[in-house]
Specification:
Chain A is mainly alpha-helical and 379 residues long. Chain A contains 14 helices and no strands. Classes of the chains: A mainly alpha (379), B mainly alpha (332), C alpha/beta (408), D alpha/beta (316). Chain A: InterPro entries: ABC_transp_permease (IPR001851), LivM-like (IPR043428).
Chain lengths: 379, 332, 408, 316
C-alpha cells in the first residue's frame, strides 16, 4: 500500500489543509485575526450580494446563522467526535430556551433572575438532562441510541404542550435580555436589533470553539475519537468509554442549551412550536454537510443550512426537501462533508512531529464516515 | 407559597384513574385496532432490521405514501367526507381495489428507496452511522416531496363506512371497523409468517439475516433477498395504510407517518426486533398500553409519550424484546 | 420472478382477509341518516344590512400622495398559510380599488412572509420596520407571532391592525400602535354562550378546547358565561391531533345537548365527524377559527349539526365584494377575515388620502378613527380594542355555511 | 524542503518501505555512528521501560490460572486449565485450531469471565472487572485482526495507550490544568520513544489507516506497551509476515522482554514459538496437555500426537 498519495489526486481542500498545517503558530494567528474581525463586522457591512435584506433583516439572519453554528459545534461533539448519532438534540435546545423563559418572563410563576444568569443556568440544567438521558441509553448500540434520542426530543416537545406551567402554545412573552441601553434610551439587546445579539453569540461561539479545542487536544478528545473509531478496542486500550460518552452527551447538551437560551432572549417569546423533529434533522444536516468531526467545518455547514433559506426566500418551502436530499447525496458521494474530519488530538502535537520527523502530520481528507472495510455494515 | 412549589404543583399530572376504569374495555378494543396497524408497519422495520441490521427510518413514509394511494383511489371511486350508499359487495370491492393500489405503491416506493439510497452504501460497506443519516434523509425527502405536491393541510376525509357496534363485551361495544382491521391484520401477519418460515424465498431471507456472507456462498442471491425484504415490508405497510385511513379518515397528511413510524418501531422492538410474531405481539401490546396512557393522563399526546417510554424501558432492560430476536442473531 | 409471485400471494391474502372480515361485520347498507334533526329551527338570513355610509377604499378619487407604502406581514407559506392568504387577498383588493380610483396616489403594497411562526417573525418584522416608506401595516394573523413582534412595532411607532389575532393579552402590553379589527375572545366567548343557551336552548354543554392561546382564551371566556351548564364536562385536545376517541367517549358519556369546540377547523372537523359517527345527535357549536369551507370538506355530512359564531361579517353575502374578491383570489370565495382585511386597509388608505405621510400621523389617524366599515363600526379605545363589536351567528345548511343573524 | 514535504520512499532490504525523512531525530539517527546509536537506543529503552511497582519479583508467578473452566451453553471451551506466567519470561501458548487458545487468552485478559476457577494477577483474583479496568491493572493485549484507530496518526494511537494511566479530569483538560499539561508532555515523549523502540518512528505522523501492514502490526504492539502493562499479551502478532519480518519480530519481542516486560505469545508458527519463548503451554480440546521448556515440548509425544495425529516421526 503506498504511503503518500500521488500529487494530482489530492483535492485542493487537502492542500489548503496542509498549507495551513505547516504555518507556524504566530503566522496562523496573523491569518486568523482579520478573518475573525471580518466575521464580527459582517452585519454592519451588510454586503449587497450576501445581504438577505428584502426577505429577512440581515443582522438577525446573521444572528440565526451564528446561533446555528453554536448548536452545530455542540452536536459535533456528540456526532462528529464521539460518533453517537443524537436525533433529539432539539430537546436540549428547547430545555435551554424554556429555562431562559421560565426564569425571566413575567408570564412564568418561577422566581425572576437576570437574563445573563440564565445562560450558565441553562447550560447546567441541560447538562443534567444530558446525563439523565445518556445514563440509560449510552449502553445501547448506535441505531437504538438514535431512535431513543429521537424519542427524547419528541417527549420534551410533547411535555411542553401538556404540562400546564410550560404553557404550551400560549408561551412566554417578554423573555429577558442582557442589560444596557443606547444613549437614546432604547434597548441595546432589543429583539429587532440583531447586531449586538450576533456579537454576543459569535463571542460565545469562539469561546466554546476554544474550550472544545482544549478538550480535543487532550485525553478526552482522544477518548472520543477512539470510541468513534472502534469502541471495543478503545475499552481494551483502557479508555472508560461509558464515562466519556456520557461527558460527550453532557457537553453537547450544555452547548445546545446555551444556544436555546440565546434564541429565547433574541426572539423574546418562547412557545412549543419550533422544537420539532425537522429542526433536529436540520441540525444534523449542518454537522454532516460541514464535515462531521471537524469543528470549523460544522460552523461552515451551519452557516449554509441557516443562511441559504433566509437568503433565497423562495426556497423557504423547499428547505427540508433540499436538506433531506443533501443528506442522501452527501452520504453516497462525499460522506466526509465539505471539509472532512480533521482533528489534532495532541496538546504538543505540532512540536512533537516537528522534533520527531521534521514535518507536520498528515491531514486526511477522509472522515470517520468514509468507507472502512473493517467494521462496515453491508450485508 | 414559594414560586417553585406552585410551579411543581400545577406541573403535577393527576392520574385520572376513574375514567380509565370506566372506559377500560373500550380503550382496550380501540388500542387493539391501533395495535394491528402498528403491527403491520412494525413488520417492515423488523424484516429490514433482521436482514440488514438497519433502522429504515423512511419506512414511515413508505406507509404514508400508501395512505395517499388509498385517498386518491377512493376519492376517484366517489368516496368523500360523507358515508357512501353502497351495497356490501360494491363497498368491499372498492376497498380491495384501494388496498391493492396502496400495497403496490408502497412496495414500489420501498424498493426504489432501497435501490437508490441504500444499495450504493451497502456496496461500499460504510459504517452504520452513514446508513442512519441516509435513512433520515430519505424519510424527509419523501415527506417534503408530498408537502410540496399536496400542500401542508390534511386531505379531505374519505369515509369508508360508518362503524356500527356488532356486539358488546364487558359493557364496551366492538364495532365492525375494529373487527375488520384486527382480523385482516392477523390474516396478513399469518401469511407473512408462513412465507418467511415455510417457503424457499423465506428461507433465503432467514439465511441472509443469520449470516449474509455464508448465505451468498450457499447460492442465495443476497441482493434479490434484500429487495424482497423491502418489497414485503412495503406491501404490508400499504395494507396498513388502508386500515389507518379507515380508522382516521382525515389522517392523510404529509407528516402523518413519522410519529406512527416511531411507534411501530417501538412495537417491533417490544416484540423482539427481527421477530415476525414479535411484531404482531409488540404492536397489539403497544396499541393498548398507549391508549391506556392517553386516558389515564388525560391528553392525546400521552399516547406518544407512553410509546417512547416503553421503547426506552424495553431497550434498557430487555433489548432483545419479549420474544427475543429470531430472524438474525443480535449482531453487534 | 419470485418478487412478482410474492406480490400475488400477499395481495390474495389481503383480498381474502378483507372479504372475510368485511362480510362478517357489515350488514346494513346506505346512509343511516346523519345530521341532527334539531328541534330548534333558526331561520336563514339571506341579505345583510350593509351600513349605508360604509367607507370604500376608492375614497374621493382625487387624493394625491407619493412614495407611500402599506405592508402585509403574515403567513403566505407554511402549515397555516390559508388564514393569511384570505387576509392578503382582502388587502390586495382594497389597494387595487384605491389605486384605480386615485390615479395620482398610487399606494404600493409590500408583502412579508412570516410562515405564521413566532420564531421567524422577529427577523421579518425588523426588516419591515427598517423600510421607511412603510407607514402602515395590516398585522400578523396569529396571536403567537403578534406577541413576538408587538414590541418592534411599538419601538418604530408603526401602526399595525390585525384582522384576526384575538388573544386578549395582546392589548395588555401598553402598545399604542396595536389595533384589533375584530372582537377579542372576551367578546366572542360570552356571545357564543348566549347563542348556545338562548338560541339553541341547550342546558348541558361540553366545552372542548385546543392548546392554542386562541382556543384557550375563548374557552375560558365561554366557560365563565356558561357557568355550571358546562362545569362538569370539559376536555382538551391539541393541534395536529387526528383521533379524538378519548374526547368522543367522554362526551357520549356526558350526553350534552351541545358541544362548544374552541379551536381551528383542522381539529374541529375530524372531532365533529367522529362525534356524529359515534351517534352524537346534539349540536356542534364552534367559533370563527372553525368557520371555513375546509370544515365542510373535512367533516362531510357530519357537519349538518354545526353552528358558528364569528365577529366577522359574511363577506360572501356582499355580492359586490364577493365578485371583486374572486378576481383577486383566483376564483376562491372570500374566506374568514377577508372582509376585515379589506376594511382595515381601507382605514389606512383613507388616512393616506387625507394627506398623512408619516407613521406617527397615521397611528394618530387610526387612533381617532370613527366610521363604518363593511364588516363593522370601527372605533378603538385606548388599548386598541374595538369599542363595540357585534358577533354574528351562522349554521350549516345543505352543505353551505349560512348567516342566521347577529347575536349581541 | 522539497515540495513533496521531504518524503521519498526508499525500499530497504526487509521490504518495509522505510521512509527517508529529512528532519527530526529519525534523520539524525541515520547519520549517527553505531555507538551513538546504541547509546540513543539505550535511552529510548530506558524511557520505554515500565516504571510501575509490581508486587511479584522476577521469576515469581505474575499471572496464574487455577482450574479455569469456560462453558458456552453445552460447549466446554476450557476444562480446568491451570498454569502460571512468571514475571520477566516469554510464555508461549500453542495448540491446534479450536484448542481453546483464544478463549483462554480472553479469559486471562478479562474479556470472558470463567464459569469456574480463578484468574489471579499478583495473587489477587481478577473477578468481575470491566475491560478498561483490567487494562489499568496491567494486562495489555493486541488483536489477531488489527484494530487500530484509523483516523488517528500513529503517534496519537500510542498516546491513547498512555492515556490508560492518566488521571486528567475532563475539567482539567477543559482548562488545561497543570496535571493535563504535565501528562500530555510525558505522554508525547513516551509515545515517541515507543515508536522508535518498535522501529516505526519515521511514519509517526501518518494516519494509522495509511500505514503498511508491517507498521500497523508494530503500532499495535507500541500502543499496548504504552499502557505500561505488567503482562503484554500478543495474539498471533506474526500473522501474514514473511520469514524476514518474523525474524525481526522475534528480535522485537526479545527486546521487549529484556526491557522488563512479561510477554504471553499465542502463535501457530512453531519456529517462531520455539525460537523466542522461555516456556510453552500446550492446549488441546480445552485441556492443558503439556507445559515446559521448548525442547521438552518439541519431543513430547502428546504434543506431537495432538498436532500431527501420527506419533511415528518427529515434528519439523
Amino acid at each position: 500500500m503506498t504511503s503518500a498519495r500521488n500529487e494530482s489526486r489530492r483535492p485542493h481542500l487537502q492542500q489548503l489543509g496542509e498549507w495551513w498545517n505547516s504555518l507556524p503558530r504566530t503566522r496562523q494567528w496573523l491569518v486568523l485575526i482579520p478573518v475573525v474581525l471580518l466575521i464580527y463586522a459582517l452585519p454592519v457591512l451588510n454586503p449587497p450580494i450576501l445581504s438577505t435584506e428584502p426577505g429577512t433583516n440581515f443582522p438577525i439572519a446573521c444572528f440565526n446563522a451564528a446561533r446555528f453554528a453554536l448548536i452545530a459545534l455542540g452536536l459535533n461533539v456528540v456526532v462528529g467526535q464521539a460518533g453517537l448519532l443524537d436525533l433529539g438534540y432539539v430537546g436540549f435546545f428547547a430545555v435551554g430556551a424554556y429555562v431562559a423563559a421560565l426564569f425571566t418572563s413575567p408570564d412564568s410563576a418561577l422566581a425572576k433572575l437576570p437574563y445573563l444568569v440564565t445562560l450558565p443556568l441553562a447550560m447546567v440544567i441541560t447538562m443534567f438532562f444530558g446525563v439523565v438521558l445518556g445514563t440509560p441509553t449510552l449502553r445501547l448500540r448506535g441505531d437504538y441510541l438514535a431512535i431513543v434520542t429521537l424519542g427524547f426530543g419528541e417527549i420534551v416537545r410533547l411535555l411542553a404542550t401538556i404540562v400546564p406551567p410550560l404553557k404550551g402554545q400560549v408561551g412566554f412573552q417578554e423573555v429577558g435580555h442582557p442589560p444596557g441601553r443606547l444613549p437614546d434610551g432604547s434597548l441595546i439587546f432589543a429583539s429587532s436589533n440583531g447586531t449586538p445579539w450576533y456579537w454576543l453569540v459569535v463571542t460565545l461561539t469562539i469561546a466554546m470553539l476554544m474550550l472544545v479545542g482544549n478538550l480535543e487536544r487532550s485525553r478526552v478528545g482522544r477518548a472520543w475519537v477512539a470510541i468513534r473509531e472502534d469502541e471495543d478496542a478503545a475499552q481494551i486500550m483502557g479508555v472508560p468509554t461509558f464515562k466519556f460518552k456520557l461527558w460527550a452527551f453532557a457537553i453537547g447538551a450544555a452547548i445546545g442549551g446555551l444556544s436555546g437560551a440565546l434564541f429565547a432572549g433574541e426572539v423574546g417569546f418562547v412557545n412549543n412550536q419550533k422544537f420539532d423533529v425537522p429542526t433536529s434533522v436540520l441540525f444534523l444536516a449542518a454537522v454532516v454537510l460541514g464535515g462531521s468531526g471537524n469543528k470549523v467545518g460544522v460552523l461552515l455547514g451551519a452557516f449554509v443550512v441557516s443562511y441559504v433559506p433566509d437568503r433565497f426566500t423562495e426556497l423557504a418551502n423547499y428547505k427540508y426537501l433540499i436538506f433531506g436530499l443533501a443528506l442522501i447525496i452527501l452520504m453516497i458521494f462525499r460522506p466526509q462533508g465539505l471539509l472532512g474530519a480533521r482533528q489534532r488530538l495532541l496538546a504538543k502535537g505540532r512540536e512533537a512531529y516537528q522534533r520527531l520527523i521534521g514535518r507536520p502530520e498528515q491531514v486526511s481528507s477522509e472522515s470517520a464516515l468514509a468507507a472502512e472495510s473493517a467494521k462496515g455494515v453491508g450485508a | 407559597m414559594h414560586p417553585l412549589t406552585t410551579f411543581l404543583a400545577d406541573a403535577w399530572i393527576n392520574f385520572d384513574v376513574g375514567s380509565l376504569r370506566d372506559q377500560f374495555w373500550s380503550n382496550t378494543f380501540d388500542g387493539l385496532t391501533y395495535g394491528a396497524i402498528y403491527a403491520l408497519v412494525a413488520m417492515g422495520y423488523t424484516l429490514v432490521y433482521g436482514v440488514l441490521n438497519l433502522i429504515n427510518f423512511a419506512h414511515s413514509e413508505v406507509f404514508i405514501v400508501g395512505a395517499y394511494a388509498v385517498f386518491f383511489v377512493l376519492s376517484g371511486l366517489g368516496f368523500g367526507p360523507s358515508a357512501p350508499a353502497l351495497s356490501i359487495g360494491a363497498l368491499v370491492a372498492d376497498l380491495l381495489l384501494a388496498m391493492v393500489a396502496a400495497m403496490l405503491v408502497s412496495a414500489a416506493v420501498a424498493v426504489i428507496l432501497e435501490r437508490v439510497a441504500y444499495r450504493p452504501l451497502r456496496r461500499k460497506g460504510v459504517p452504520r452511522l452513514v446508513f442512519l443519516i441516509t435513512a433520515i434523509g430519505a424519510s424527509f425527502t419523501i415527506q417534503y416531496l408530498i408537502f410540496i405536491w399536496r400542500g401542508p393541510s390534511a386531505e379531505p376525509a374519505v369515509i369508508m363506512f360508518r362503524p356500527e357496534a356488532v356486539f358488546t363485551v364487558f359493557g364496551a361495544d366492538i364495532d365492525d371497523q375494529q373487527l375488520t382491521i384486527v382480523a385482516a391484520a392477523l390474516v396478513l401477519m399469518l401469511v407473512a409468517d408462513v412465507f418467511v418460515n415455510r417457503t424457499r424465498l423465506g428461507r433465503g431471507v432467514r439465511a441472509v439475516a443469520q449470516d449474509p456472507d455464508t448465505a451468498t456462498l450457499m447460492g442465495v442471491n443476497k441482493e434479490r433477498v434484500i429487495m424482497l425484504t423491502f418489497l414485503m415490508g412495503g406491501l404490508l405497510a400499504g395494507a396498513a395504510s388502508l386500515f389507518y385511513v379507515m380508522k382516521v379518515p382525515s389522517g392523510v397528511q404529509y407528516s402523518g407517518g413519522f410519529i406512527l413510524g416511531i411507534k411501530a418501531f417501538a412495537a417491533a422492538v417490544l416484540g423482539g426486533i427481527g421477530n415476525i410474531r414479535g411484531a404482531l405481539l409488540g404492536g397489539l401490546l403497544l396499541g393498548v398500553v398507549s391508549n391506556y396512557g392517553q386516558t389515564l393522563l388525560g391528553a392525546s399526546q400521552w399516547s406518544d409519550v407512553v410509546a417512547f417510554v416503553v421503547l426506552v424501558v424495553v431497550l434498557m432492560f430487555r433489548p432483545t424484546g419479549i420474544l427475543g430476536e429470531s430472524l438474525g442473531k443480535a449482531r453487534v | 420472478m419470485s418478487g412478482a409471485r410474492l406480490v400475488r400471494v400477499l395481495t390474495l391474502a389481503a383480498v381474502a382477509s378483507l372479504s372475510v372480515a368485511g362480510c362478517a361485520a357489515k350488514t346494513n347498507s346506505g346512509d343511516s341518516g346523519g345530521g341532527a334533526g334539531s328541534n330548534v329551527d333558526i331561520p336563514v338570513v339571506s341579505q345583510l344590512p350593509v351600513p349605508p355610509n360604509a367607507a370604500s377604499p376608492a375614497g374621493s378619487g382625487n387624493a394625491t400622495c407619493s412614495g407611500v407604502t402599506i405592508a402585509y406581514a403574515g403567513a403566505e407559506t407554511g402549515p397555516n398559510a390559508q388564514l393569511g392568504i384570505n387576509i392578503l387577498n382582502g388587502v390586495q383588493l382594497a389597494i387595487n380599488e384605491h389605486n384605480q380610483a386615485n390615479k395620482n396616489c398610487q399606494v404600493a403594497l409590500k408583502k412579508f412572509d412570516t410562515e405564521g411562526d413566532p420564531g421567524k417573525a422577529p427577523g421579518v418584522v425588523t426588516q419591515l420596520v427598517s423600510e421607511s416608506d412603510i407607514i402602515g401595516v395590516i398585522g400578523l394573523p396569529f396571536s403567537g407571532e403578534s406577541k413576538a413582534t408587538g414590541g418592534t412595532f411599538q419601538q418604530a411607532n408603526l401602526v399595525h391592525i390585525t384582522p384576526s389575532a384575538t388573544n386578549p393579552a395582546l392589548t395588555k402590553n401598553g402598545w399604542s400602535t396595536f389595533f384589533r379589527a375584530l372582537g377579542n375572545d372576551a367578546v366572542q366567548g360570552p356571545a357564543a354562550a348566549k347563542f348556545i343557551v338562548d338560541k339553541l336552548k341547550a342546558n348541558k354543554v361540553c366545552v372542548v378546547q385546543d392548546d392554542s392561546d386562541y382556543g384557550i382564551g375563548l374557552a375560558t371566556a365561554a366557560n365563565q358565561a356558561l357557568g355550571d351548564k358546562a362545569k362538569d364536562c370539559q376536555d382538551k385536545v391539541t393541534t395536529g391531533q387526528k383521533d379524538f376517541s378519548a374526547t368522543v367517549s367522554k362526551i357520549m358519556n356526558a350526553k350534552p345537548d351541545a358541544v362548544f369546540y374552541s379551536g381551528y377547523y383542522a381539529e374541529g372537523a375530524p372531532l365533529d365527524q367522529q362525534l356524529v359517527n359515534k351517534g352524537f345527535t346534539g349540536k356542534f357549536v364552534a367559533p370563527d377559527g372553525v368557520k371555513d369551507d375546509k370544515f365542510l370538506q373535512l367533516a362531510g355530512d357530519a357537519s349538518g349539526n354545526a353552528y358558528f359564531t364569528c365577529p366577522c361579517v359574511p363577506g360572501e353575502l356582499l355580492q359586490k365584494f364577493s365578485d371583486a374578491y374572486k378576481g383577486v383570489s383566483g376564483g376562491q370565495a372570500p374566506g374568514t377575515y377577508s372582509l376585515e382585511g379589506y376594511d382595515a386597509t381601507t382605514i389606512l388608505l383613507k388616512g393616506i388620502d387625507s394627506g398623512i405621510k408619516d407613521r406617527a400621523g397615521l397611528t394618530n389617524y387610526v387612533k381617532n378613527y370613527d366610521g363604518d366599515g363593511f364588516s363593522k363600526h370601527f372605533k378603538w379605545d385606548a388599548t386598541g380594542e374595538l369599542a363595540t363589536s357585534t358577533v354574528y351567528g351562522y349554521k350549516v345548511d345543505h352543505g353551505k355555511i349560512v348567516y342566521v343573524g347577529t347575536i349581541s | 524542503m522539497s515540495q513533496e514535504t521531504g518524503l521519498q520512499e526508499v525500499p530497504d532490504e526487509a521490504g518495509e518501505e522505510h521512509v527517508q525523512v529529512e528532519g527530526g531525530i529519525v534523520a539524525e539517527l541515520e547519520r549517527m555512528t553505531p555507538e551513538e546509536r546504541a547509546e540513543h537506543e539505550a535511552e529510548v529503552a530506558e524511557v520505554v521501560a515500565p516504571d510501575r511497582e509490581i508486587a511479584v519479583g522476577f521469576g515469581e508467578t505474575l499471572l496464574e490460572l487455577r482450574e479455569v473452566t469456560v462453558r458456552f451453553g453445552g460447549l466446554v471451551a476450557l476444562d480446568a486449565v491451570s498454569f502460571g506466567i512468571r514475571r520477566g519470561e516469554i510464555l508461549g501458548l500453542i495448540g491446534p485450531n479450536g484448542a481453546g487458545k483464544t478463549t483462554c487468552f480472553n479469559a486471562m485478559t478479562g474479556v470472558y469471565r470463567p464459569t469456574s476457577g480463578q484468574v489471579l494477577l499478583e495473587d489477587r483474583p481478577l473477578g468481575r472487572r470491566k475491560r478498561h479496568q483490567i487494562t489499568r491493572l496491567g494486562i495489555a493485549r493486541t488483536f489477531q485482526n488489527i484494530r487500530l484507530f484509523g483516523e488517528m496518526t500513529a503517534l496519537e494511537n500510542v498516546v491513547v495507550g498512555t492515556d490508560a494511566r492518566h488521571r486528567t479530569s475532563v475539567l482539567g483538560a477543559l482548562l488545561r490544568g497543570p496535571r493535563h499539561r504535565r501528562e500530555e508532555a510525558e505522554a508525547v515523549e513516551r509515545a515517541m520513544a515507543l515508536l522508535e523502540f518498535v522501529g516505526i518512528a519515521d511514519r509517526a505522523a501518518d494516519k494509522a489507516r495509511n500505514l503498511p501492514y508491517g507498521y500497523q502490526r508494530r503500532l499495535e504492539i507500541a500502543r499496548a506497551l504504552a499502557t505500561e502493562p505488567k503482562l503484554l499479551c500478543l495474539d498471533e502478532p506474526a500473522a501474514g509476515f514473511n520469514p524476514a519480518e518474523k525474524e525481526q519480530l522475534m528480535g522485537l519481542i526479545r527486546k521487549i522482554r529484556d526491557d522488563g516486560y512479561t510477554v504471553l505469545l499465542i502463535e501457530h508458527d512453531m519456529r517462531l514459538v520455539m525460537g523466542v519463548t522461555d516456556r510453552i503451554v500446550v492446549l488441546e480440546f480445552g485441556k492443558k496437555i503439556a507445559e515446559g521448556l521448548p525442547a521438552e515440548i518439541r519431543d513430547n509425544p502428546a504434543v506431537i500426537a495432538a498436532y500431527l495425529g501420527v506419533p511415528d516421526d518427529g515434528a519439523a
